[in-house]
Amino acid sequence: MPRAAASIALTSPVEDVPGVGPELGDALRALGVPSVAHLINHLPFRHEREEAEQPINQISPGQRAATRGEVSSTRVSGGYGRARRFEAVLMDETGRLDVVWFHRPGLHRTIHPGMRLLVSGQARRHGPYLRMANPAFRVIDGEEPPRRQARLRPIYPASERITSGAIERVVGAALEDALPLIEDHLPEAFCRERDLPSLAEAYRMLHAPTDEEEIPRARRRLAYDELLFLQLAILRDRLANDLRRAAPLPVTEEIDARIRGRLPFALTPGQDEAVADIARDLSRDRPANRLIQGDVGSGKTVVALYAMLAAAAHGRQAALLAPTELLAEQHFESVSGLLKGSRVRLALVSASLASAERERVEADIAAGHADLIIGTHALLTERVGFRDLGVVVIDEQHRFGVRQRTALQSSTRADAPAPHTFVMTATPIPRSLTQTIFGDLDITSIRGLPPGRGRIQTLVRTPADRAEIDAVLTERCARGEQAYIVVPAIETDASLADVRSTLERIRGGPLAGRRVAAVHGRLSRASRQAVMERFRLGAIDALVATTVIEVGVDVPNASLMVVEHAERFGLAQLHQLRGRIGRGGRDSLCVLVAEPRTPDAQARIEAIAATSDGFALAEKDLEIRGPGDLAGVRQSGAPALRVADLLRDTALVALARRDARDWLTRSPRLNRPEDTLLARRLDKAIRAAGE
Ligand code: ADP
Ligand code: MG
After folding, report:
1. What gap in Å lies between CA 286 and CA 293, rounded to an integer?
2. What is the reported pTM?
């Protein structure tokens, strides 16, 4: 029995839409469209104008047109080597249209005289008749379909299993029943004042526009919603933060001198500025919430340490959270070195600790016997109880979402003062966006690198240059330098360089007799650490690695990096990877082995080869990819932007920012009854962004 369409709910599975069987349902699910709501949210990325059907004698030359008629004759012409073509003559009661298809001689098996045909395309004058070349066509068999009306046809993101046309039919079957179910989270008057259509209207306008003007109107509404959510998320966080109290930790001259005295080097001007920002934040009684962006190698660790030691100077605890165990251990090592002989007590919380040891460390933390605590973000989720957390530093934040930060803040007692939080990242948000997105949020940029660094030269090569690349590997390793060889995968089909094949190849070739090892995500933590440790100590000459080494790994003697299939990596990722070399005094070399096949990939490779300035690359990334997808934007944990364009929609951004501020002034927690739907959708958008 066919299901009644009226039973459709927004939460209904797509299979409840009339005409969707299991197969189509599966194809839609694979496309990320499991329910009717998802279907309505599956937006066309463009629209195609379809002309109304006309009698043949009404068609004007040079215009796109659709018509139907009877095939009166057909002909295959053109010989081998020349363009072969299939010609047909189409007649209706008003006239004659010649139709020709090039390079499709097989059509003579599909189209025969006497058949009725619908064609659409561009007609031109050709001799005494009109001719349409390579039209789209449909054979009419059986019942005559109704005359086609002019319309804008939505073109959907599709897949190999389901075409845009099939999606269009499914949307068409659900739209009328689904639209009235869509509740608007914005009041009607609010929309009217801003000349925004209702939400249901906006979806209708995109899926079934009646005229061209509706499309930008619909997009404006959906873009506005995204921007409003973005601004609400940011401002609400900020507001909540402003309401919390923190213990002020003023950095006196004496404390400053004592901390600097611990460091084996003078701070760079960029680090000095960051430290000044931190000291200013710490002196306040509201929790700091600062993003510190500094290029790879700019020396963020000591800036973090400065903030932590300031807490220790006031007898408070400080935590440093790293995205991986590897980095947590590395931080622990380097901070231990710097603090040798100091009274500051350091603790490492690591998943690799034996459970008894781990319990002891946690008891120390809870009792206040540990001052600086280093670990991974597991420190948050596993609810390690701090006694008196004054400062938290989150390193390489692009692996952390907003939710984790919130988890951290709630891991301290609600009535206790909130810790000052600093987030470090080497993936800067382009300056052209920070103002737009974050307004006056606290952001510090560490400019410049510590002195005495060698330079990094970047070369772009293709697999055809293998002999040259191998020679460089052989030569550098023979000189006692160390190399990373980065591959996109652990194991793949034969066409890709992966860990296994690369290891085999270089062991048998350029690095025969050298000490070569591999690190990747499938190794146990212990073996991964053992390999990294041996590499750090110089007991391994070359390391074949996946992107597990992308972030933070600091081995100054490594001065060569070869990136295989470099076209497969994102710009920020390539920059991070390259940041593993050039850490010592010696000049380093990065060889990108790339065969870019798309203009974007080409642009990425050119950009990375042209500059090693992470801030410049972030701007470039923005240019290439557009802001929606940008790592720096996503890392903010803010709701994603599908429709809005932060660079183009500046007026809408300003409107959304103003509205968000007003809204939160009226309802700081968005907990009035009339905010319920908005608050729910906002939380959903934030959750989706954090995943
Ligand atoms: P990142 O910003 O990528 O986290 P790190 O903090 O790991 O950079 O620092 C990279 C290297 O630079 C480390 O070996 C560190 O000891 C060194 N370094 C940091 N600051 C300075 C400085 N002011 N002068 C000299 N070396 C420094
Ligand atoms: Mg770092």
Report:
1. 22
2. 0.69
- In angstroms, how far is CA 246 from the centroid of its own chain? 33
- How far apart, in whole angstroms, are the C-alpha atoms of residue 18 and residue 28? 14
What fold is seen in the domain 57-149?
A: OB fold (Dihydrolipoamide Acetyltransferase, E2P) (2.40.50)
Closest of 415, 391, 417 to residue 245, by C-alpha: 417
Question: Which residue's CA lies nearest to atom 19 of ligand 1?
Answer: 299
Bridging pattern class, strands 372-376 and 317-322: parallel
Per CATH, 253-446 and 456-612 having the same topology is answered yes
Instruction: Report angle CA 191, 192, 193 to the nearest 5 degrees.
Output: 90
Q: What is the DSSP letter of 10?
A: T
pLDDT digits (tens, 9 = 90+) for 55-113: 999 998 988 899 999 999 999 887 665 668 899 999 999 999 999 998 876 888 889 99
Within a 13 Å sphere around the CA of 288, how many CA atoms are in the beta-carbon half? Answer: 28
DSSP alpha helix (H) spans, 125-252: 164-178, 188-193, 199-207, 214-243
Determine the topology of domain 253-446 in CATH: Rossmann fold (3.40.50)
Q: Do 76 and 84 meet the contact criterion of CB atoms below 8 Å apart?
A: yes
Radius of gyration in angstroms for the set of CA atoms belonging to the chain, rounded to a whole number:
31
Q: Does 333 sit in the ligand 1 pocket, CB within 6 Å?
A: no
How far from each other are the two terminal CA atoms of the chain, in whole angstroms? 40
Separation of alpha carbons 634 and 636, rounded Å:
5
Distance 264 CA to ligand 1 centre (A): 11
Residue 368 φ/ψ region, left for φ over 0, alpha for ψ in the -120 to 50 degree band, beta for the rest: left
Q: How far, in Å, CA of 278 to CA of 568, rounded?
A: 38
Q: Domain ranges in the chain?
A: 1-51+155-181, 57-149, 182-243+650-691, 253-446, 456-612
Q: Which ligand is nearest to the CA of 585?
A: 1
Residue 379 CB–ligand 1 contact under 6 Å = no
Place of tokens 């930008």: 216
Token duo for residue 114:
């006497």
- Superfamily designation of domain 456-612: P-loop containing nucleotide triphosphate hydrolases (3.40.50.300)
Instruction: Say which amino acid occupies 72.
Output: S
Nearest to 486 by CA among 546, 428, 554, 433: 546
Q: Of ligand 1's atoms, which has the minimum distance to the CA of residue 304?
A: 6
Q: What is the pLDDT of residues 219-271, one digit of tens each?
A: 999 999 999 998 898 888 778 777 888 999 999 999 999 999 999 999 999 99
